[in-house]
Design a protein that fits this description.
Shape: flat
Structural class: mainly alpha
Radius of gyration: 36 Å
Largest sheet: 3 strands, antiparallel
Strand order of the largest sheet: 3-4-7
């Protein structure tokens, strides 16, 4: 260490000092420490594809399945550049694409040349774990799959299903005739939608077709026949004609109550004062302690909704529950419809005030009319009937009613004769 003079003030200062103790003039400025370069992360190495087995590419953009697997090149341009064919499938990971290509190259020629989507084909092949695919999966037709589905649902199941349900499933199959000979794995949303759009039948028949599609795809997914459910995208693009109807007149209601000791009349009054569709009674549940029905069909808002029982119809609900909710007897919509029309005919009430023939759905319209007539609040009416609240954000998000509140609203409805 030696003393030197400060260039600023002239005082003696150590040559090792960082700055002059008198004036603060910097003497020794430390050189910046150079940061060691951060080693670059080595990219993950993927398994190399064997020569002539195809190629895998990572597609740009934000994708659920970014890895595309392409078959071996078989065509070239005039200058010798390879022509990439259509991808055999798109996958979440490189290894999935790799495995798909290995399966593709080991598959028989007729499988590779088929129009089957290879994402479906690959799923089936992987499920077999054999490198080949059974014709049961690849070549099964819509009609053949239907037979398996029908047998599984109605003949092998321990659950009791009515003959009416079987008939509805068969009718939906018959109305899908243009698909019968098609390979099931070849079908896409457009094929299913075409069946629904070109069917000349009513809305209720189209609902059965869509229900069949959903059931068959659920069965196919469970058995690794397909990997995607296209039925979930099918829509019915005509108005729901089942929602049309005419309420029973006050005079007709009064006459029904005069004969309420009849079991068949009690069932009609039960439909009128709960607002449930006739099909809902096939699976409805009964809470005797709190006196309400729970169930519903068709819409998300309508399913599993709670409807408190008006005191005047609680005896009808108990009689219904003793027969059907206990499981001793299966409710048949067909039998109920027949009884409905026969009962109204016996009372001279077959025709509505509008000159049309009353239908079971008129009971639901009568319930709606009674709610309006006796001042049931709008939100409670929507909840009781299972209506969708649509774009009404306030009601759909913040609209709630307890069972007790719904009971208070439904008991506003007056019953003829003060019952």
């Amino acid at each position: 260490m030696a003393l030197i003079l400060c260039p600023e003030c002239g005082h003696s200062v150590s040559d090792k000092a960082l700055s002059c103790p008198s004036c603060g003039y910097p003497i020794n400025i430390p050189a910046p420490v150079s940061a060691e370069p951060v080693p670059k992360r080595k990219p993950k190495r993927h398994r190399k594809l064997p020569n002539g087995s195809g190629s895998i590419k990572h597609l740009s953009g934000k994708r659920t399945r970014p890895w595309a697997a392409y078959p071996p090149v078989t065509e070239f341009t005039l200058n010798g550049s390879p022509v990439l064919g259509a991808a055999i499938g798109y996958f979440r990971a490189y290894d999935e694409a790799y495995q798909a290509l290995m399966l593709y190259n080991n598959a028989p020629d007729d499988i590779r040349k088929s129009s089957v989507s290879f994402s479906d084909l690959c799923a089936a092949m992987l499920s077999n774990r054999s490198g080949t695919i059974s014709s049961e999966y690849v070549n099964i037709t819509f009609a053949e799959l239907y037979e398996q589905y029908f047998e599984n649902k109605y003949e092998k199941s321990k659950k009791k299903l009515s003959n009416a349900s079987k008939g509805s499933t068969r009718a939906a199959f018959n109305n899908s005739q243009k698909l019968h000979g098609r390979k099931f794995v070849d079908l896409r949303k457009a094929d299913l939608q075409d069946v629904v759009d070109t069917c000349p039948l009513k809305h209720s028949s189209l609902e059965l077709i869509v229900s069949l599609f959903k059931g068959m795809y659920a069965y196919a997914l469970q058995n690794d026949i397909v990997e995607k459910d296209y039925s979930q995208f099918v829509t019915i693009n005509i108005p729901d004609d089942d929602e049309n109807g005419v309420p029973f007149s006050p005079e007709a209601l009064d006459l029904l109550w005069q004969h309420s000791d009849r079991e068949d009349v009690g069932m009609i009054l039960l439909m009128i004062y709960t607002g449930f569709r006739i099909a809902a009674f096939r699976s409805i549940t009964y809470n005797e302690t709190e006196q309400y029905f729970q169930g519903g069909v068709k819409t998300a808002a309508g399913k599993n909704r709670i409807v408190p029982l008006h005191p005047a119809i609680q005896k009808f609900a108990k009689a219904f529950a003793d027969q059907y909710c206990s499981g001793d007897k299966v409710f048949s919509t067909g039998a109920c419809r027949a009884s409905f029309h026969a009962t109204l005919a016996s009372l001279g009430l077959s025709m509505s005030s509008a000159g049309t023939k009353h239908t079971p759905h008129d009971c639901r319209h009568t319930f709606s009319w009674l709610c309006d007539k006796y001042g049931v609040d709008d939100l409670s009416k929507h909840l009781l009937m299972g209506h969708s609240l649509g774009s009404d954000v306030e009601k759909s998000v913040y609209g709630h009613r307890t069972v007790s509140e719904l009971r208070t609203e439904i008991e506003k409805i007056h019953v003829p004769g003060g019952r």
